[in-house]
Amino acid sequence: MSPDLTIVILAAGQGTRMRSALPKVLHPLASRPLLAHVLDSARALEPRRILIVHGHGGEHVQARFPDPEITWIHQPEQRGTGHAVRLALPATAENDSVLVLYGDVPLVRPETLARLVRSLNAGADLALMTTVLADPSGYGRILRDDQGRVLRIVEQKDATEAERHVREVNTGIMAARAGAFAGWLSQVTDDNSQGEYYLTDCVALANAEGARVEASVAHDPVEVMGINDKRQLAEQERAWQRRRVDDLMLAGVTVLDPARLDVRGRVSVSRDVTLDVNVILEGQVDLGEGAVVGAGCVIIDSSIGPGAHILPHSVIEGAVIGANARVGPFARVRPGTETAAHARIGNFVEIKNASVGEGAKINHLSYVGDADVGRDVNIGAGTITCNYDGANKHRTVIGDRAFIGSNSSLVAPLTVGEDATIGAGTTLNRDAPPGELTVARADARTIRGWKRPVRKPKT
Ligand code: UD1
Ligand code: CA
Fold it and tell me: Residue 37: helix, strand or coil by DSSP?
């Protein structure tokens, strides 16, 4: 906990260049709003307060973050970053360290921010974060004197041709005491090409009164890149993915192509996990030792047991897959599914809210919903649990070692006893006793001498 630290996140901008009805800070990166990523970094510093300046689409933004720890500050008109910070200051104490973050700079690391706060505590009056870009266009440029001291920041739109050649840019992230910001911001004017109150003018004002301005250069420009349009959003998405994939590989995961794995949540792994191309992992995913995930699988909020094989193009959500189980290819495993060890969910099988016992096999083309399938059960191709009567869901219970013939319909609620056999094509509408064959089907008959119709000649 940093008792005198207040973090102000600027998030009122309209994000015109996104060309979207969605407020910019709600656009997803790794399936979470940009602002959520900024908040993660902010919270990691354990500040006393987090203030968010919102404006455009503010009520939607606020609704997405119902955290009582956040104080929301409304900026009805976007009159510039300096104006936004000024609105936030009354919610701070004079001696607070105020760290300003931008809602559209999502990848900044807590360690990088901590460096800025430390420089303030070590005596700087204004600490700012800069970076050096190959292409600085769009950013405010850092102007230094011969001794390398930062003099001021000039926005791209106000810069001269020579100033535009400077490649060191303002990341927008800066820190100062609340009282100091208040003093400088009361002098900032909107006399510039955009008619806005620039936060960046604080630098020249601080220098004018002999205050100590310190700039730290962020070494990884990706970390401090702002997102203004969909192209930059996609770039940042890739950068974020690269970080996650690097973490996984360092944890021992074999990733067949680091550019073709997407992590949109938190993944925990044991040794010797293999991930083939175009896998998407979302929410909380746990991968046991030696688990293999095939090409094109989507795994959401699930746990995959040790030695389990998920074959290509399977979608697994809210499920627990047991050790050494095999799922797919082309399986759809829906929430509430739990399979024991060595279970087998084959191709074109949809399964939801069901438990599948050890060694049970549902190998082809089945729908199993709201069911308890015992151990070593074999469910034939085309079997359907009719779990829904149009109003309510009902459960199907299948005892250990039962054998369900192909193309059976099990009209729930019902129980198939242990070791029972259900004949192929049966529509089962009552319980089947253990150990017996139950079958409901019309016997086939042969009509001797029957002739196929023949096509009439065209007239
Ligand atoms: C700003 C900086 C620029 C820096 C760049 C880094 C200023 C004047 N310029 O430019 O030096 O290189 O960021 O990304 O600060 N916002 C508000 N209220 C407002 C205006 C903006 O909350 O009235 C918020 C926006 O939602 C956004 C952030 O402040 O999160 C930055 O605003 P934006 O308009 O994107 O500034 P840039 O032109 O990118
Ligand atoms: Ca910006």
Answer: helix
Q: Could you tell me the CATH number of the domain that includes residue 81?
A: 3.90.550.10
Q: In this structure, are 339 and 290 located in the same domain? A: yes
Integer Rg of the chain from CA: 31
Pocket of ligand 1 (CB under 6 A): 10-13, 53, 75, 78-81, 83-84, 102-104, 139-140, 153, 155, 169-172, 198-200, 226, 228
Q: Could you tell me if residue 451 is inside a domain?
A: no
What residues are annotated to the active site? 364
Q: Closest Cα to residue 221, out of 273, 171, 269, 282?
A: 171
Report the predicted TM-score, pTM, of the whole model to 2 decimal places. Answer: 0.89
pLDDT at 390: 95
The minimum-distance atom of ligand 1 relative to the CA of 13 is 26
Cβ proximity of 174 and 126 under 8 Å: yes
What confidence score (pLDDT) does residue 26 get?
94
242 shares a domain with 147: no
Total tally of structural domains belonging to the chain = 2
Neighbouring residues of 242: CB distance < 8 A, sequence distance ≥ 6: 258
Q: What is the pLDDT of residue 351?
A: 98
Rounded average pLDDT over 124-135: 96
Q: What average pLDDT score do residues 9-19 get?
A: 91
Tokens linked to 233? 């959003």
Give me the phi and psi of 348, to 5 degrees please: 55, 35
pLDDT at 3: 81
Of 355, 388, 384, 347, the closest CA to residue 367 belongs to 384
The CA distance from 234 to 228, in Å, is: 11
What local confidence, expressed as pLDDT, does residue 88 receive? 98
